[in-house]
Amino acid sequence: MSNTAMKINHLNHALSVSICLGLLLLLTGCWDRREINDVAFVLAGGADKEGDNIRISVLIPLTGNMGSMGGGGGSGGQKPFTVKTELGKTVSEAVSKLQNRLPRHLFFGHRRVIIIGEELARTEGIETILDAITRTPEKRLSTFIAISEGKAHDLLNADIRLERFSAESLREELQSETSADINLMEIIGKLITVGEDAYFPYVQKVKTAIKGQESEDIRSESFALFHNGRMTGKLEGKTAVGFRLLNQYIRNYDETIKLDGKYSTVTINQVKTSIKPIMKNDELSYRIHFMVKVSMDEDLNLERNYDYSEQRKQIEQIIAQQMADNINLAINKMQQNNSDAIGFGLQAYRAYPHIWNTKYRKEWDALFPKIKFEVTGDANLFRLGMIRESLGRKDQ
To answer: Which of 20, 136, 205, 210 is the most core-located residue (most Cβ within 10 A)?
Structure first.
């Protein structure tokens, strides 16, 4: 081989090695790494209306204050978290301004709960908030979302003693028997569905005024009703119970009834609700029937004879009537606020697609408050909670 050929071979070999080394540098580099000490993990977020602006709040854990559970969950009586807020004309502007004054990068991938203040929900609605959230690559569609009584910022700052973070207390409360764990994916589905309105859990901050042990708790027993993306009303007390029965979103809960001047408490163990659209004489109505299984928890009448079938039947009738009344209250409240949160329109479309599209779809906002409902139900007292006669009954 000539010297020229050898030089060319050496040159090709050197060039190949240089290219391989360059590719390896590109493949193994960590130029975009971010150390965990440079990240602020957001556990909960809040949005409030403030004048013409939107206030965005984020709850960030403080690892340095998580050494003990004393003094409200932090070391030396300090809270194990901080809430940072910022104002902006849009959600993105507020988040950007907040990021600019923080030494760490905000990371939303671990956000568990989003709270929207009631004023913002009623005036601006939630669609712009959801639009900003869903454009964020770090979003979690399983994040719970709720409406707060008052400011979301105040709720995130609640002095919760049972949990380290108010975010954790909120997440647990939204999964409790009295609430509904509504997440981003479900809300987006409801907002784009014709014949159905959105609803949210309605959360409140409650103060515990025991001298020397003052603290705050979070309660979620109500629901916020929406129409066209804005909050129009809320369901509380018996209306909230009726809504849960209609929605079949039931995990065991208690009802108290009065019979023969004495109170009894029963547990609603299982509910099956049938909602049937009826088209008669070209008019739409609904027939609702429910079946519930209940168990006796407590009876202040220690002389009551459960072996007497008429006595048990009377208890079942009272329970069924009380639940039917609750359902009617919920329906009336939804009609008053023009919020079809159950999706009656969607069920009419499924049953009568042609009539729905030609007559009801465009006029549903005006027609829904006038629709008639017939509610009936049966209760089955299947467990008495006793293995023998009442211990309080005296021997004859």
So the answer is: 205
Give the tokens for residue 196.
């159905």
Q: Are 334 and 343 in contact (CB under 8 A)?
A: no
pLDDT tens, N- to C-terminus, the chain (396 residues): 556 555 556 555 655 656 655 655 555 555 556 677 778 888 888 999 999 999 999 988 887 665 554 444 444 456 777 889 999 999 999 999 999 988 888 888 888 889 999 999 999 988 888 888 888 777 778 888 899 998 999 888 887 776 777 777 777 777 776 667 788 888 888 888 888 899 999 988 887 766 666 677 788 888 999 999 899 999 999 999 899 889 876 667 788 888 778 888 888 888 899 999 999 888 999 999 999 888 888 888 777 777 777 878 888 898 899 999 999 999 999 999 999 999 999 999 999 999 999 989 989 999 999 999 999 999 888 877 654 455 544 554
Helices (DSSP H) in 181-308: which residue ranges? 184-191, 238-247
* Paired strand residues for 310: none
Distance of CA 53 to the CA centre of its chain: 25
Burial class, 42, CB count within 10 angstroms (exposed 0-12 / middle 13-18 / buried 19+)? buried
